[in-house]
Amino acid sequence: MSFRKKFGVNRLFIPTKEMIIDCVENCGVSFKFDSAKRNIMMNAPFFGDDHDYKLYVYIGENTPKVNRGAWNHFRSGQKSLDFIKLFQEMIGERDYNRAKMEFIKRFLGVDDIENFVSSKKQEIAEKPKFISFSFPEHFRKLTELDTEYIEYLSDRKIDWTKHKLYVNEQDRRIVFPMYIDGNLVSYSQRTIDNDPTIARWTHAYKKDGDESVVMYGLDNCSMRAYVFEGIIDAISYGTSSIAMMKSVISDNQIDKMVKHGIRKIYYVGDNDDAADKVRYSNLLKFHQFFETYYYDWKESGYSGKDEKDFADIKKKYGEIKTEGLFKKFNKLKYELEEKVVKCLEH
Question: Is residue 62 within 8 Å of 74, Cβ to Cβ?
């Protein structure tokens, strides 16, 4: 029976920053810190002639804990979210479970593995969970009989049949549910009326729930996700789309994406000055954990005045230009291009 099956451990083992540094030093591998001290750069134990510190291990305190210890060797393309797999290489242990137990013994000072894992399982069990909740009784699924609501969506060129939507007929709102692991944890509502005296959007969260993890569309994604700020932008593009429900991605949202199995991110911030200020920081966060692409508004030809997001563009033109406009994020190249643009503007 495997270590994971025996002790019921299905999560990645997440070492602390101190454990990682202690481990690398203890194994005699040469390393140094990057300028921001969010990574250690080390020589790869599995790449004999590598003496250029091309293997990066993430240790930053402001990254989601699930990814501390994630590593990437840029020369060979080898990478993993699991630090134990790198430890295997450093000590020459072919069996993953033995390497994991060896790491725990050496760097946690734990000899009784079974009691250690049992105590960790108890901590997880006692941790407050984001509990699912239910819709009010007057909410119901959107059907072809709801012509006013369908007209609102059709006017925005949105195919309502491709999305799980509900109707709040009492307040004349379309309801957009949000799920985590199949459980309803939140919902947002959009009025179909042009009444300036009422809020266009309302949002409901489970009492005592963690709002920082909520996003629309996560359960509809697999390994790839298109990430937007708002719900209408996300569903305007189609399936495999996520709405952050804010302009800045949170660490907890990234944590959920990683656990969900997402590997590629196609990020589309709004086409305005406010989004420009946070676009780079969002890309840096995504880039640490995913293969990251971004929508190049500068080359799209869209003005930004009445074409500031995918919802505006879909409503105006019925389709959205994307061919050749999703660029792979490269930190140095992106910074250089931004500097050139600023120079030309001045």
Answer: no
